[in-house]
Amino acid sequence: MREFAYQRAARVHDALLAVAGDRNARYLGGGTNLVDLMKCGVERPTRLVDVRRLPLDGVHVAPGGGLVIGATTTNSDAAAHPEVRRRFPALSQALLAGASGQLRNMATVGGNLLQRTRCGYFADLSRPCNKRLPGSGCAAIAGVHHNHAVLGHSAHCVATHPSDMAVALAAFDAVVRYQSLDGGGEIPLSRFYLPVGDRPDLETALPPGALITAVALPGVPGSLRSRYRKVRERASYAFATVSVAAALDVRDGVVRDVRIAMGGVASRPWRAGSAEAVLRGARPTPDRLRACAEEALSGAEPLPDNGYKVLLAKNLIAAVLGELAAAEEVG
Amino acid sequence: MSPDRTVGAVGASRPRIEGGLKVTGAARYTADVPMPGLVHGQLVTATTSRGRVRDVDASTALGMPGVLGVLDHRNAPRLNPKAGNYFGPDGSLLLLQDEVVPYAGWPVALVVAETPEQARAAAAALRVTCDAEPHDLDFDMDHPAARPASTAFGPEADTGDLEAELAACAVVVEERYRTPEESHCAMEPHASTAWWEGDHLHALDANQGAFSVSEVLAALWSIDRERVHVRSEHVGGGFGGKGVCGPQMILASMASKRFGRPVRIAMTRAQVFETTSSRPRTEQLVTIGADADGRLRAVGHRAAYALSPLAEYIEACTEQAKVLYAAPAIRTRLTAVPLDVLPPASMRGPGATPGSFALESAIDEVAERLDVDPVRLRLRNQPSVAPVSGLPFSTRRLVSCVQEGARRFGWAARDRRPRSRREGPLLIGTGMATASFSAGVFPSTASITAEVDGTFTVSVGASDIGTGARTALTAVAADALGVDAGRVRLRIGDSDLGMAWGAGGSRGTTSWSFAITEAAKELRGRLGDPARPVTATVDTSALIDFQPGRERQTFSAVFAEVAVDPATGEVRVRRLLGVFAVGRVINPLLARGQVVGGMVMGLSMALHEESVRDPRTGRLANGDFAGYHIAAHADVPDVEADFVPDYEPLDPSGFNGLGEIGTAGTAAAIANAVWHATGTRQRTLPIRLDRVLEPVAAGKDTEGATEGADHAVTRGA
Ligand SMILES: Cc1cc2nc3c(=O)[nH]c(=O)nc-3n(C[C@H](O)[C@H](O)[C@H](O)COP(=O)(O)OP(=O)(O)OC[C@H]3O[C@@H](n4cnc5c(N)ncnc54)[C@H](O)[C@@H]3O)c2cc1C
Ligand code: SF4
């Protein structure tokens, strides 16, 4: 058993100080990812600073109709919150599509954003992995990569980001708020996760030692409909093979606004900006939806064993947008 | 319950005797039993599929807190190399005897410490260097090392002239089917505690047969079996994965010998995946020919499975080809392919489960080519005697199972054209399969003592691995003694209770019941002085007729309905119905639990389960429950099971086993339903979504999708 210090922070500043003073300290949210990684030896912190009791939980309506979700809000509470369900149904659905009831009761919003990849080699200390041990190589490229990335990967790492929640946040242009000893800041989700490049171990733009305090969602028009659909290898309790968070605002038969983000396809939630442009201002005909889906995957570079994800992602985008467009006609 | 009610415990539904203990946590499993002076062992396993251990550097580990020592091939006690299992000599029992690494997951060292945490920490600090050698995991029916499988379970079938019959057929189907390596995934990880008292070895162990484990240990240590005492009171599932003497048991006995303390080894889940045996991969070629009127003329079934060169093993995939259908020509060929793999072991419905997927899929393909209803095709080809042996069946209620199943399932209304049913974007299909599973009895002993207080103590070396055996045998004993079940106390799970077959081969209950029934008969003849306890003991070895001149099998018909989303490839089973003929049912509640559980396992095999290995190292890439998917609750639909009235004339009480028949048949029924839904055959398990996915035009298939969220296929999303 590797020993480590544990402390519970009562104030944000205490937490920041505790982590700043110890290079190998980590914040502890629900522990559902960090503790697993400690058990298999991937993470070896000397100190855990428990942030779950910090006054950072709860969902608040911001001026302009947006929401601010505190970093220590549990995944269950965030999913169940009436304002989340009303304004951002895809976010609630994404949260509920993740893990299991027990895990969601423990997991926090901050921890969810920072959970690590589920690439099996990342957790297998006997194999090379650039994300775990920079420069050691990537075992997945010539190994098992059936559920790895088809977009935005590099020759150094082909892992995907496992979070469902983050995919919906990407669709809604969320912003991550943090505090550090140098002050506070905000990072749009679109820039929060770094491109893989040659340093897959560097995953986010969060400054060292910073504590995530909240996620802010800008307001959306009441006519924006959204939906999250997750395809996986069993009906529940599995990570996404491919998932799609989409939002559509159709008025007078014309698409005013559309947001498409994919999960399970890249090292981060993948916002399909150019595909959105195909649809914006157009009528959502089946052909247009298909063209939009094609565009979303136009840059895909599948690996030898995961080519199916490209077709799956296209089909899923077309299906989810089709459902939203059909609901639009009815509603 | 009336106190003087004396008959009729068999046939009544009763919950498990130990159910209350289990749900309150009071029942103690092997690793829960407290023990003074206990120390703990942690395995260190090989990460390559073939090689040699060059060095085990324990210098750091030995200096760590609580560490008693490290066992490896240089200092471990020597074991008898001739020790074996059911099939003969078994090299996989000979742990830490030399430097050879025969498969990934092979134990190369054991660290022993005062606490499990200390043992684990020290194990992580152990530096094992291995020289990897090229390994061979390329499973293929035509692999150069392929050889005929052992015929210990009976000869191959070779009746009639297969080629001549095929040449005369109107329709011939010849297809290849593949099933993956699978893991048993019992809830309780393998665990043992061992200690020596002089030259007596004592053990608590999670297994499916304490007696046979005691025999293997006695052989390994070259001591009399009477000096080995193994107890296994509660076992949290086995499915065949605890049928053999496990590595944890052998290593605990070695460590205890070495360190003179009781040693417990409780495997981690990852170790259970990588170090305990699995269901082997299979590749099967089925050739079936039929006349235009649907009469089968030829059934050919070739099946190959992977095994380890360390031990013999039979995955009898071709058995049902000898049982299910009448045909003038039937030929089976079973092939073993030795590779550098984890040694396989029986996994619920061994042989029959992967075999039935191939055979019953192929029969469905014949029905498709002939454009006949698959139920009718099956009913048309029922044999009057066993088609290969020519022996009569002792009982064969398969037709009743099929007819009753078809009626309940509403089969008659089915449009047999594929892709003929839609609900919104979903394609709906139904399919069915039949199955048989070999039944029988093996020698066992039972003792019954009539106590002075009017109760009876029944002792039999049975194991209850969660099946409800304890409860079923209590009912059997009560009826055999003609007393209320409340007066019967059962002692099981102990090798000192005498020779007994284990919980396996669907022969546990029949074997133990036979011994109990005979002991009761003898006891009833000897009851005299009520002031003294009287004991009767019977060994059924000499009573069993191993050549009964009749084929003894259980049968089933399984029906499935699936919903497929062609856009995503997701398959969800909506309904599953199994109708079973398994002799006289001892306890309908527990029996239903067994066959429903079996069907769920079959569903899981059809859609989810697959051990994935890294191509370079051969190491499991998904050896945990997040990666190795078994069906979750949301995957399990409305499952219905029932039994047709049946009686096994070869059993004194009319019983047959039913632990495994539930698993066979289900995968084929689901695969056939997926074909009916989509028009595409799925000949490789599991039916993963990437194997089903089709290009779908937007609009066409998203019509009516407004209620999409309510479709069964997205349930739980
Ligand atoms: C079996 C299983 C199945 C799962 N299935 C899914 C799934 O289907 N979909 C899905 O999306 N997820 C899934 N998960 C992952 C789960 O969602 C995450 O483990 C969880 O969200 C992490 O939250 P946590 O609070 O427990 O994080 P922790 O484990 O406590 O922390 C994770 C990381 O975040 C850091 N951290 C935590 N809080 C903060 C903060 N406020 N500021 C800065 N850093 C912080 C920690 O230091 C650590 O590095 C699954 C997990 C398991 C174990
Ligand atoms: S894909 Fe990334 S996480 Fe997986 S082995 Fe390669 S470098 Fe490591």
Automatic annotation (TrEMBL), chain A:
Q: FAD-binding PCMH-type domain: which residues?
A: 1-222
**Entry GO MF terms:** FAD binding; oxidoreductase activity
Coiled-coil regions listed: none
Q: Which SMART domains match?
A: CO_deh_flav_C (SM01092)
Q: Keyword annotations for this protein?
A: Oxidoreductase
Q: Mind telling me which Pfam families this protein's record contains?
A: CO_deh_flav_C (PF03450), FAD_binding_5 (PF00941)
Gene3D superfamilies associated with the record? 3.30.465.10, CO dehydrogenase flavoprotein, C-terminal domain, Uridine Diphospho-n-acetylenolpyruvylglucosamine Reductase, domain 2
Membrane-crossing segments per the record: none
UniProt protein name: Oxidoreductase
Report the superkingdom from the record: Bacteria
Which PROSITE patterns would you find in this protein's record? FAD_PCMH
UniProtKB/TrEMBL annotation, chain B:
Aldehyde oxidase/xanthine dehydrogenase a/b hammerhead domain ranges (all copies): 24-134
Q: Where is the composition biased (Basic and acidic residues)?
A: 700-717
Task: Note down the stretches annotated as region Disordered.
Answer: 698-717
Q: Tell me the keywords, alphabetical order.
A: Molybdenum, Oxidoreductase
Under Gene Ontology molecular function, one entry of this record is: iron ion binding
- Coiled-coil residues: none
Q: Which Gene3D superfamilies match?
A: Aldehyde oxidase/xanthine dehydrogenase, a/b hammerhead, Aldehyde oxidase/xanthine dehydrogenase, molybdopterin binding domain
Please indicate which superkingdom the organism of origin belongs to. Answer: Bacteria
Name the UniProt record assigns to this protein: Oxidoreductase
Species per Swiss-Prot/TrEMBL record: Saccharothrix coeruleofusca
